[in-house]
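Thread: Newbie trying to understand structure tokens

Hi all, I'm a second-year student working on a class project, and my supervisor (Dr. K.) asked me to get a predicted structure for one chain before our next meeting. I've only ever worked with sequences, so writing a 3D structure as a token string is new to me. If someone could post the tokens and maybe explain what I'm looking at, I'd be very grateful. Here's the chain:
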Amino acid sequence: MNLTALREKVKNIIDYSPDLQQFNDQLDQLLNDAYYYIWTMKRWTFATEEAVFPFYVDILPDRDVENVVAPATTNGATWVQNERSVVFDFPIDRLVKANYQEGFNIWEGQPISIENREYIIVKVVSAANVLVDRPIVAPTPLNSSTNWVIKKRHYDLPENCLELLYLGHRDYPFNTSAGAYPPYGKATALMPRREEQLDLRADYKASYAECYVWSPAYEVRPAEKLSLVENVGGDFQTDRYYELCWAFLKDGKVGALSEPQTILVKGQGTASIQLNFLSWDDELIRADAYNNEDENPTPWRGHRKVIFWNKNFDKVSGERRGLPCWVQVINGGLTRNSETYNEPVIVDDQSATYLLRYVNQLENGAKRYVEIDGQHQQVRPYPRVDGFDEEIAQVKEGQNTITYHDFRKDGIIRYYKKPKDLLLTTDSPEMPYEYHQLIVYKALEDIYLKMGQETLSETYRRRIEKEIKELQKRYCDHIDSHIQRGQFGAGRFGWRYDAQSLKRLN
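---
Reply by user tm_fold:
Sure, no problem. This is what the structure looks like when written as tokens:
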């Protein structure tokens, strides 16, 4: 059943079917709450997802030398004592792109070691310049120094991850790291308290991770206000409404959404929309330019902005068709076949405005916003992974870099995922169809409890308990479920199997 069918079934049972958008929105919220209630009751087999988990090896002065010009053989770095800027002798490709992701999303918030003291990168300014969180105490080098290293210590889990169930190195064709013993296997999860009891080293590295430690959740502050102004130089149509909002992007992680705003475009097919990112006191939100006397970063340093538009919106009447479905604004543009066309718009931390020029930037198939209110889960692989399976060579056409120099090493994760919200009328629950009625039952339990009809509410609660037992028999994730009978004669070591064929050897 899709959202419309679920909604109509509830209306039919309670015998109340007003054609009011406000009522439908409230009912949709109840259905989504019921959906999450059922979803999070157990570790359902249909609620898990597998994904490739890329590891990022250290950036080193003698490893990232793709742009080094002879006679130099290493990439040195310079800085001024008591300042926060680090400048590299030559550009580093992985600060621009790493695993086809924007480099600042990978390396901001990670440590850089300078003369054996660690600092945190607050902004990747360019391929040859980063800013750190506090003044550098090491003396200003007479020439350039090679005593530096950029490390990837903490890794973000996917935004829709509720619980990490597995992380490991599997024997896929891309995992052939020489010297990685064992080349594949499971990484064991450690809680922070257990890691502290074991007194694991903070900076130990190896070619693969033996375990991972849960890190504190990372909180990105919520965005605030937005102002929309019609401008020129675009291709937006006449007499069309658009609803937009924005969020902070900090260290590669998206925060909670701002207050949304609606605009009516009145231009003659050449209009654009100017977005002004505001605080609650109507001041522009932007970071100051770098000042070498600042001992601390400006409060908005590293807080880039990403923009979202409401897909579930009537552009003619300017009214919502249901709960807002926020979709990320992409770069778009006049040239369709370009590298950055489908990439999201990212506004620099020092910019307080953005000019939305093209209608094709509002791509209705772009990535939806995941409602996690800026809280992101992180893990720390231990040891820190510093081995790679493949080195990708840099490819240039003239002065343009077509393929960035990179190192690849991938793991696999399986996790308990957060389902997509039911927002559009055709959205369907990501669970077995024969148990969609559980969502209806839970919504009815809440509705009747709100109406003071405890008996009917209790009736639907019992129906949920009965149906959940059947759902659990079929779709519950059973841990260590390889059950065999008649093993009494296997000896104290149990059965032995050939690792390749799984043929029993005893």
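A couple of things are worth pointing out once you decode it. The chain has six helices and 30 strands. The longest strand covers residues 225-236. Feel free to ask follow-ups in this thread.
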